[in-house]
Model the fold of this input.
Amino acid sequence: MGRSQPRIAALLAFGVVAAFGASLAPARSQADAPIKIGIVGPLTGPFATTGVAFRQGAEAYAALHGDKAGSRRIEVIYRDSAGNPTTAKGLTEELLVKDKVQMLGGYMLTPEAVAAVPVVNETKTPLFLFNAATPVLLKMSPYFLRMGQNITIPADLGATWSRQQGKSRGYVAVADYLPGHAVETAFIAKFEAEGGKIVGKDRIPLNTVDFAPFAERIANANADVLEIFITPGAPAVGFIKALAARGLTQKILIIGQGEAEDNDLHLFDDSVLNFHSIIYIAGSLDIPENNALKDKLRQKFGADTTTSAFTVGAFDGLHVMYRMAENLAGKRFDGDAAMKSVTGYSWKSPRGPVTIHPSRELVQNFYVRRVEKVGGKMQNTVIHTFPSVEPPPPAK
Amino acid sequence: MTIASFILLYGLSYGLVLCLIAVGLVVTMGLMRVVNLAHGAFAAIGGYLATGLMVQAAIPLPLAIVLAVVAVGLFSLVIERLVFVHLYTAPELDQMLLTIGLNFLAIGGLTLFFGPNVYPTKLPPYLAGSVDFGFRAFEIYRLAVIGVGLVVMATLIIVFEWTTVGARLRASVDNRSMAQAAGINVPRLFSLTFVVGSGLAALGGAIGAPMLPLEPSYPFKYLVLVLIIVALSGFGRIKDALGVSILIGITETAGRYFWPEASGFVIYVLLVAVIIWRRDGLFVRRASS
Done:
């Protein structure tokens, strides 16, 4: 506790100075100055695929819609957190104090977002969660806006859908941190409410390297559906490989969320075939908005690039940021007003129709996808759509 | 029965890979008391090279592994002559700082050449799939790892225990100045062990790649496990390193199977218990003095 006090004091001091400075600055230059956006994500390290996808999504948006929102120029600054919460917090402070950004985005992992809470609550800066999916996050800061999903929704839909497929013996294996626990609770509650039986649940420590023992436990429990939540990158690859080696990917229904996005499929071998996932986008989604984004991504980042949950999180994040900037045209940027100005806002996203719910979650489609080989190339194919899913009541 | 055999076989294969990676450090630390925290980098480079040669250059896996091991061995000789020679008389803190720096260099290099993501590995068809033992099926890959690991470790132990080179090595570990006085060229012996140790780490990294995914942060990710093996084995004790590694592999596998939530800690409980009980190494007889 003692150690964090100087930092809070520094922040308070900064807040006072910032407010004072703002009151002195001439109003006109404030209204014309470019809006700066800071994006914090893991551009290197074990979660680099996600951070890189954030950047691609944001750059594709700027390429498609220009660098101006109304009359104001938008400047995007990228910072690399390497997935480390302490780094994420430091970068957030730096972006606000040194670069004077008006909006923040990125934050792949829940701990990164949690680390930013005290900072943005102090500076009243809208922060767009491109991915972090723990329900309680939105309660921690009124300036958080979810551009991805509340992780309990795909877990809940996973239970519903697997019961519809006639699965009755459920198993839940999740990474042992906040969003994993939320997935576990949501899936079990729904699966049991729908008459299924939970035959096992595991919380997998984050430092796990050899996943074979977990695959063995799951196989021995005789489950017919497995709900998983595991961080993308090495852990996801290791876990899915271990499940495949035990024959489970072919034998039972395995449902995840963003473990094997299209852009990450090259990290896997064929063991990932028949892996199911429920999330709010699919690279193969054939709607004009997604096709336009895909064309831009291919043109800018190579023929193998496609839309993923992480690209579209950033893409839509920028869309709403531009919207906020336009809504506040001619005025000084104010976090509270900006947040208020987008409630209930609907638009057509590459992921389908989207509305910002008063709870700061999105009302959006969810897609059940299966990894298949199409023309020799693996992809996530949509096999079922849950249209316009409402977010659950806010976390307590 | 099936659970016990699973834990035994998977724990054994996991432990043997860790053993191959760590054994070089056990010996070199025993010999020169150099704390080489960059040891894991050799395993990582070996893994990347072998996988790269197989996937990109379509070289058969066994040949790719041999090439990777030789390349890493030669590379380590260069590093030893250029960098480590200056460390033998340096204080331990300097050794740690410099070798941690080497680790960061390795991570940067791997990211530069292979990208920041997991480097995908693929098993050749003859290693994919399982064999049925009647009561249950086991992955061929795991069995192959056990075979290779046991053969390599047995060879190493034979060399260490029953040849003149081994005798010189053991003498140098026990008392370096006396060994030097008796005419043993300890620095050259060290170069040799360093190269062999790095090559073994490369072998571990290469055959372990499907189990321990290759990513740039590899040198740090597995450092703790490697250091635990070194700490529990005691200086320069190859046989003990084998025993300790297998114990760790089986403990970790059993821990994950029976107490998944706590499995992140099981290994540390073992570490603390052993360090309190037997500070010099799990199988080291306590000196009576």
Notes: The two ends of chain A are 25 Å apart (CA to CA). Chain A touches chain B through 35 residues (CB under 8 Å). The first strand of chain A starts at residue 35 and ends at 41.
